[in-house]
Design brief:
The protein is an alpha/beta fold and 323 residues long. It is built from twelve helices and eight strands. The protein has an eight-stranded mixed beta sheet. The radius of gyration is 19 Å and the shape is globular. It binds iron/sulfur cluster (SF4) (2 copies).
């Protein structure tokens, strides 16, 4: 795989600084039941990196002492982690809002038969990848049979109360483009998804988040192999919108890797660009528990243009629509 960090480090992206932490995003490890083409963490069934119980407890200690209101759990497929349910139940007992970045097909894996019921009982918000409402496109990006497997999972979530009136169980979908292009309008695409999934498949969801592909990891490497890297960077830069800078997710999100090191965002985690405090080049979650991160410089590189291009992009979807 081609390393993309050396291609990104020379940057003119504006300096930005952190705000108060609102979301703790925890990557439990890289094991996944899928191996998607665009995956920015290079996850797959053979990856063995996984967060220890000790670090999981440090995450809970951080939540307990800081009162950060939201825990966003990601991977890999986080549900495959042995401590996933422990982490969720303990965080919910602290009244922390929990989000599960779910790839949908995980609900069909052995041992996950009661996953949907567990998530519903814990009032976990599900954020699920469904990169298209057309079968061929999904299978091309995520693997054979993934589309039908995803629909079955969505029906299961709906049956458990997700995206149903009055339950408070939120189910959001995530779209990202198939190739080196910017996502279309989030509002318009959400309408298309809603109509197609409802009329053709009887499926409901709450919101659709459109995300730009980042020129890093597997997607970035593919761009390099195809000679499309420079062109994609040009596209991101040509569509730079300064208004999006105020809302980039790194201002209010803290990302933790499976070893407990912290980053300004998940993308920086994958690039190996750790959060720095003063002269400390790398810090762990337990080191920042009592630290004031407001005003701390964010580690930027050229991939940051992926967050500010067009309508903007964050793990909560477009930024522009929030204004
Ligand atoms: S499901 Fe998600 S974590 Fe797993 S390979 Fe696909 S993009 Fe990566
Ligand atoms: S990639 Fe996006 S979220 Fe990460 S540091 Fe850059 S602007 Fe912030």
């Amino acid at each position: 795989m081609h390393a993309t960090l050396p291609l990104l480090q020379q940057t003119e992206f504006p300096a930005i600084a952190r705000d108060a932490v609102e979301v703790l995003q925890v990557n439990l490890g890289y094991r996944c039941n899928q191996s998607c083409v665009h995956c920015h963490v290079n996850a797959g069934p053979t990856r063995t990196e996984t967060m220890s119980r000790e670090i999981v407890d440090e995450v809970l200690q951080y939540l307990r002492s800081t009162r950060v209101p939201t825990l966003d759990i990601t991977g890999g497929a986080p549900e495959l982690h042995a401590q996933f349910r422990y982490l969720v139940t303990q965080a919910r007992a602290l009244d922390v809002h929990v989000m599960d970045r779910c790839n949908l097909t995980i609900v069909h894996e052995p041992g996950q038969e009661d996953l949907v019921e567990f998530l519903a009982a814990q009032q976990v918000e599900v954020v699920a990848s469904l990169p298209c409402y057309l079968e061929d496109n999904v299978n091309r990006q995520r693997g054979a049979g993934v589309f039908q497997g995803s629909l079955t999972a969505l029906r299961k979530l709906n049956a458990a109360g997700y995206a149903q009136p009055g339950t408070g169980l939120r189910l959001n979908l995530v779209y990202n483009p198939q190739g080196p292009s910017l996502p279309p309008s989030q509002a318009k695409l959400e309408e298309d998804y809603r109509r197609t999934l409802r009329d053709e498949h009887g499926i409901a969801f709450d919101r659709l988040y459109t995300l730009a592909n980042m020129p890093i990891a597997r997607f970035g490497s593919t761009l390099v192999s195809k000679g499309q890297f420079a062109g994609y960077m040009r596209l991101l830069k040509d569509n730079y919108h300064a208004d999006n800078l105020a809302q980039v997710m790194c201002r209010s999100l803290l990302s933790v890797d499976f070893q407990g090191y912290v980053y300004d965002c998940d993308f920086n985690q994958m690039l190996g660009l750790p959060l720095k405090i003063g002269q400390k080049q790398r810090v762990k979650l337990r080191d920042v528990q009592h630290a004031e991160l407001r005003g701390n410089p964010i580690q930027i590189a050229d991939h940051c243009y992926g967050c500010t291009a067009g309508q903007g992009s964050s793990c909560g979807g477009a930024l522009e629509s929030e204004r």
